[in-house]
Specification:
single chain; alpha/beta; Rossmann fold; Dehydroquinate synthase-like, alpha domain; 6-stranded parallel beta sheet; two-stranded antiparallel ribbon; globular; binds 5,6-dihydroxy-NADP; binds zinc ion
Length: 386
């Protein structure tokens, strides 16, 4: 097992009606709040009114910046940085999903930096400090409510890059599963695929002797699959929504990633898809992950066999047959919850695979840790995703 430091400062406040605590939690960090949100779902659901009432009750002043798009854009981040400076915001309150939270994190780091915030994403600089970010979570998916990451799309060239830094972990996250009952079925399914992918990225590791985290990953994957089915069948079930919400957080706060290095090439490849085609991240992963598995499984058949046996209860066949059956069952699970598993099924043409492979491998010689991919082999994964 690798040596590790696990730093998780986010206060998670979980349960019914917790969004009404937004004001009192934000008040701990100052009196001036930037309220950041997306395309309008929070106004339709009435959440906006409840959150602003809570800010008012706590005696806070706020400015608003809505309009975050899925696959959040750099231009809005820059607007947010100017607004925060002008208003001297003490804290950013992100009300939404991964896109809103990631945009808030980018603003939080950018406010403290004299240069171009994109430097943090392109690798030209690293953020040492950021404004505090608080969260009211509305969708179970990206896990940004407790992760140290932010993923931003630069419209100039359509580059989608991630940044990970301790100062980006939210200071609190208010997680009310009831709020996710209005998430449409397709987005719910995308979230399930994303959280499953977050566990799988960590599960397929070059480290041996990581039994505790292996078993935690397997339990989490089984729970996501079972409760994913439940939530798709009964979208208003508080119990199923609660399981999925907590799973999304645990899948990506890195508790199941300690002591091992994850792979992350499927995420890198998917970011190329969503950068160019603006597809939902989870749907992109449902396409890329099985293709990646088909490309790499021969490298470590025992691990793929363990995945198939323990997560999907595959029993019959040779080691290789069991490994392949695990991949097939993952693919059929994605199909069952309504996701595309090929580029064609998502309506994505095949004429820019070279470009995506090139952009994916552009920043570093290798993509991934479990099996190191190059531009050529990323291209082969995309070929398998056709
Ligand atoms: O914009 P609004 O109106 O809020 O609508 C959103 C959006 O259209 C809607 N939605 C959210 N909550 C809702 C709702 N609709 C009805 N009722 C609700 N309660 O759902 C749509 C998708 O929202 P988005 O925030 O984009 O979803 P998600 O949480 O999946 O975030 C995706 C982004 O996170 C990044 C992805 O790449 C993508 O850009 N990721 C961030 C990570 C991180 N920071 O740690 C890790 C992930 O691997 C991922 O890369
Ligand atoms: Zn993801």
């Amino acid at each position: 097992m690798n040596s590790f430091t696990f730093f998780h400062p986010t206060r998670i406040i979980f349960g019914k009606d917790v969004e009404n605590q937004a004001g009192q939690e934000a008040r701990k960090y100052g009196t001036r709040v930037l309220l950041h949100y997306g395309g309008g779902s929070i106004k339709q659901s009435g959440l906006y009114d409840r959150v602003t009432a809570s800010l008012r009750e706590a005696g806070l002043e706020w400015r608003e910046l809505g309009g975050v798009q899925p696959n959040p854009r750099l231009s809005l981040v820059k607007e947010g940085i100017s607004l925060c400076r002008e208003f001297a915001a003490d804290i950013i309150l992100a009300v939404g999903g991964g896109s809103v939270i990631d945009s808030a994190k980018a603003i939080a780091a950018g406010v403290m930096y004299d240069g171009d915030v994109w430097d943090f994403y392109s690798g030209g600089a690293f953020p040492q400090k950021a404004l505090p970010v608080g969260v009211v979570l509305t969708i179970s998916a990206a896990g940004s409510e407790a992760s140290n990451s932010s993923v931003i799309t630069n419209e100039d060239g359509w580059y989608k890059f991630g940044l990970s830094a301790d100062c980006l972990r939210p200071v609190f996250s208010l997680c009310n599963p009831q709020l996710t009952c209005t998430v449409p079925p397709y987005q719910t399914a995308c979230g399930i695929a994303d959280m499953l992918a977050h566990v799988m990225e960590r599960y397929f590791t070059p480290q041996r002797d990581v039994d505790v985290t292996d078993r935690m990953c397997e339990a989490l994957m089984i729970a996501i699959i079972e409760n994913g089915r439940r939530v798709m069948a009964d979208p208003n079930s508080y119990e199923a929504r609660a399981e999925i919400m907590w799973a999304g957080t645990v899948a990506h706060n890195d508790i199941v990633g300690v002591g091992r290095s994850g792979d992350w090439s499927s995420h890198r490849i998917e970011h190329e898809l969503s950068a160019i085609y603006d597809i939902a991240h989870g749907a992109g992963l449902a396409i890329v992950f099985p293709a990646w598995m088909k490309h790499v499984y021969k490298h470590d058949i025992p691990r793929f066999k363990q995945f198939a046996e323990r997560v999907f209860e595959v029993t019959a066949g040779s080691d290789e047959e069991v490994a392949l059956e695990g991949i097939a069952r993952l693919e059929s699970f994605f199909r069952e919850i309504g996701l595309p598993v090929t580029l064609s099924e998502a309506g994505i043409p095949h004429d820019r695979l070279d470009e995506m492979a090139k952009k994916c491998a552009w920043r570093s010689a290798d993509v991934g840790n479990y099996v190191k991919l190059t531009e050529d082999t990323v291209r082969q994964v995309l070929e398998l995703a056709k």
